[in-house]
User: What shape does this take?
Amino acid sequence: MNLTNIDARIIPAATAHGVFALDRHLPAAEQVYRQLRNEIITCRIAPNEAISENRICGMFGVSRSPVRVAVTRLAEDGLIEIFPQRGTFVAAIKLKQLREAQFARSALEVALAEEAARHWTEQHSDEVRINLDQQVQHARAGDSRSFFLDNEAFHQLIARAAKLEGVWTTVQSVKTIWDRIGHLANRVPAHTLEIIAEHKVIVQALASQNPKGAAAAMKTHLRSVDHAIARLQPLHADYFVEE
Amino acid sequence: MNLTNIDARIIPAATAHGVFALDRHLPAAEQVYRQLRNEIITCRIAPNEAISENRICGMFGVSRSPVRVAVTRLAEDGLIEIFPQRGTFVAAIKLKQLREAQFARSALEVALAEEAARHWTEQHSDEVRINLDQQVQHARAGDSRSFFLDNEAFHQLIARAAKLEGVWTTVQSVKTIWDRIGHLANRVPAHTLEIIAEHKVIVQALASQNPKGAAAAMKTHLRSVDHAIARLQPLHADYFVEE
DNA sequence: GTCAGTATTCTAGTATACAAGTTGAAGGAT
DNA sequence: ATCCTTCAACTTGTATACTAGAATACTGAC
Assistant: This one.
């Protein structure tokens, strides 16, 4: 993207939730979708909060057409719920859905780790080493946003090593619901260091091309996130519902 | 993509794909989506075929607004591809995507079968027995549409037995790409009887509450679908692309 | 004060009009 | 004949207007 003369294309919009700027050369719907999704996942727009399409129009300075596209997509992601003629609301975090997402993610990523070990090369080791370094760096700096991205890159790298990168997009859609509480959990430094330690165990198994070992390490790693819920749920009880 | 002979593929809606009647009391967008999705999955609208929003408007007798919602959803399902200011086309079946979907589906359903065996009850056995009877009945009658639904119900029942019914929706979205060729494959009677036999092996393991056995049986079952591609691909070579 | 009925004002769904961009063929110049 | 320019006919993206239904607040009767 050309960053030289963006100024003319930027349209600012002051809002209750912040200031959003849109690049008029890119599809508005896509940008609105990404922004809203980010706001919801990071809980800056809280669960159960009402969303008005017209208000969003004002926030971004666009008409309802692109806003509706974005809102429809978010509804399909399960992040918001639309009640015709009544209103649209940010979905609460459903505990049953969390369990199901956890199950699905574990099944997919354990299988990916197993397959990745079969195709692991020295080049993958090099790549993952750089990634792990960044994880440590960002964790120590308390940069939870960057750590989140590092974490994503780590798991995606494993999918790529398995020559099944497309499966990662499936994992992403499944774990969307987890990201909402993940952003909160990553604020705890002890937790991030724990995660990094588990990542290193996985890498060790991958590097020694041990499929079963990698699968087991991944299973352990993903099981530990369960504890995150147990810790967070009482802190934000109003965000969660059973079903 | 070759855009030079698009004109040859543009066919008046009324003669090519019929005119669809809509229930005006239900949301138009949802109905358009379901109809179009069905047409694409059953290959009545062939891969690479051009889709014009305006033409669809004519087919259903609605404006572009609900059509756009439907088209956008189909694009997210990966069934169609939108090229801004150029056109919208039914996506070709990507072999790499098929492999990835197969991997993901297998990982999910094997894990589901394993979990289902742990929670299997006599009532589940009763339900699945009725379902298997219908499979045999519809297979013998050559009713591929009903057999497809039976098959879906069978796998969904296993997810429900695992107390993880929500995971089934993930499986569904992943296997959408498979359904497109599945509808063709189910026309072969020998193939359906083979599938039923494999289903029975799975049920046996589930009924004896044998998690590892159920997982293995499911794995075998889902692996056999690979053969379906090998058989179908040469018959519809123009529907497939590597990536 | 209480309650029924009504009106206003929200909402999402749909229809229509316009804007921006691409394609491919027609037509003239070389 | 070949190349270049131009233009008309599409395409999707966006903006606006209108419809129908639901919730709420208000008004009037009792």
User: Anything to note?
Assistant: The two ends of chain A are 43 Å apart (CA to CA). Residues 52-54, 64, 68, 82-88 of chain A lie near DNA strand C (CB under 10 Å from a C1'). The longest strand of chain A covers residues 10-15.
